[in-house]
């Protein structure tokens, strides 16, 4: 997840295609990433936070560029349930109302995670109420938003082959309290609470080269295959898409095989948190922007080549709200350039690369069907 400064139900689609090399003219609302993606059978969206809406210029861009939003902080458990007996939906409701006014879809992130939990939860999980702490929370939150969500990240980052378990599950408080079946419980509870939303398993680490990523891809497909065999209602895989501009590159051939494996399981694919870390690169902005754009294009060209992929969301829209990684970087004048718009809200090479990837999507004359959106 990125560090920040604290502080549709339907989509109209045209059939006109763009050449994959086309760079789209800046400034025309019709040429937003959302409209380009929609014209090529995909949703584009981004994470947003309530404090960002206080910037009127940014709020206007947020109403134009994406067609689907996800809350960056406001729907994590630490925000939604600060006290065992009290829920606070105010901030999340604000973002949802914004998306609905702008005729955008909305995603829920995340119902079950081993991080971003309120301090009281650790002690509570040691009690005999531990199962209710999982399923009761899902019933309350997903029930509150029933019928208004495009999709839910039901379970987030539950796999860690390096932890040494034969089932590849991460050693989390949920696993310790409830055993391996906690993931099944979570998806069944989510289906009961919000029957028509897409239910997503969300994770990272399936894009890169090397033995570690090979093990993670294999563990992920095994986990999903076995869950589907047990009748667990998982509809889609959420591939976070956190990349590095100056680190290990995307392994396109292995990523393609992985996406094909997800499709073979009957799963849709959503890119849920895409950004490109430009740390370790030169101070020269143009060089960093080129590297970020190249990494994004290399990744998206593969995942968008599959008709299983129905959405791409970036983890934020503008660099305006990103902090330098540390004080040393700040002293050097380094500011991250990880997202489609820069700190002045201008479109960057990453925006153009994403537009070209959407426009070059195979089968781009297809219309989006309602089943892709709900």
Describe the protein.
- Strand 1, helix 2 (56-64) and strand 2 form a beta-alpha-beta unit.
- 37% of the residues lie in helices and 14% in strands.
- Residues 1-29 and 363-374 have low confidence and may be disordered.
- The protein has an eight-stranded parallel beta barrel with strand order 1-2-3-4-5-6-8-9, surrounded by five helices.
- It is globular.
- The protein has 14 helices and nine strands.
- The protein starts with 32 loop residues before the first helix and ends with a helix.
- Helix 9 (211-229) runs parallel beside helix 10 (252-264).
- The protein has a single domain (29-373), classed as Alpha-Beta Barrel (TIM Barrel), CATH 3.20.20.
- It is an alpha/beta fold and 374 residues long.
Termini Cα gap: 26 Å
Beta percentage is 5-15%
- Tell me the helix content: 25-40%
Reported by name, the CATH topology is: TIM Barrel
Q: Can you say what the CATH homologous superfamily is?
A: Glycosidases
What order do the SSEs take from the amino end to the carboxyl end, as H and E? HEHEHHEHHEHHEHEEHEHEHHH
Spatial sequence of strands, sheet with the most strands: 1-2-3-4-5-6-8-9
Work out the number of β strands: 9
Main beta sheet strand tally, sense and closure: 8 strands, parallel, barrel
What is the average per-residue confidence, as pLDDT, rounded to a whole number? 88
Number of individual domains? 1
How many helices in DSSP terms? 14
């Amino acid at each position: 997840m990125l560090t920040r400064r604290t502080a549709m139900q339907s989509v109209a689609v045209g059939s006109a295609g763009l050449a994959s090399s086309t760079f789209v003219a800046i400034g025309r609302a019709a040429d937003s990433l959302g409209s380009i993606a929609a014209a090529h059978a995909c949703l584009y969206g981004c994470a947003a936070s309530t404090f960002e809406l206080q910037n009127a210029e940014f709020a206007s861009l947020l109403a134009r560029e994406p067609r689907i939003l996800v809350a960056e902080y406001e729907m994590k458990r630490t925000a939604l349930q600060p006290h065992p007996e009290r829920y606070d939906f105010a901030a999340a409701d604000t973002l949802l109302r914004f998306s609905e006014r702008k005729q955008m879809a909305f995603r829920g992130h995340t119902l079950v995670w081993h991080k971003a939990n309120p301090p009281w939860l650790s002690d509570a999980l040691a009690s005999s109420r531990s199962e209710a702490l999982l399923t009761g929370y899902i019933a309350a939150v997903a029930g509150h938003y029933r019928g208004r969500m495009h999709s839910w990240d039901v379970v987030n980052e539950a796999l860690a082959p390096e932890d040494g378990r034969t089932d590849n599950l991460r050693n989390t408080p949920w696993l310790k309290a409830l055993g391996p079946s906690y993931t099944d419980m979570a998806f069944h509870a989510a289906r009961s609470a919000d029957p028509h939303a897409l239910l997503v398993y969300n994770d990272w680490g399936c894009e890169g080269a090397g033995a570690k990523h090979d093990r993670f891809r294999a563990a992920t497909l095994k986990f999903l295959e076995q869950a589907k065999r047990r009748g667990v209602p998982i509809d889609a895989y959420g591939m976070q898409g956190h990349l590095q501009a100056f680190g290990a590159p995307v392994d396109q051939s292995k990523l393609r095989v992985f996406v094909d494996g997800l499709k073979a399981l009957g799963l849709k694919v959503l890119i849920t948190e895409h950004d490109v870390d430009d740390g370790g690169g030169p101070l020269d902005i143009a060089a960093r922007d080129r590297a970020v754009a190249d990494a994004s294009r290399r990744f998206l060209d593969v995942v968008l080549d599959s008709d299983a992929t129905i959405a791409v969301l970036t983890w934020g829209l503008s660099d305006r709200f990103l902090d330098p990684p540390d004080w040393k970087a700040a002293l050097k004048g380094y500011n991250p350039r990880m997202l489609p718009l820069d700190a002045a809200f201008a479109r960057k090479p990453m925006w153009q690369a994403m537009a070209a990837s959407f426009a070059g999507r195979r089968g781009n004359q297809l219309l989006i069907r309602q089943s892709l959106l709900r």
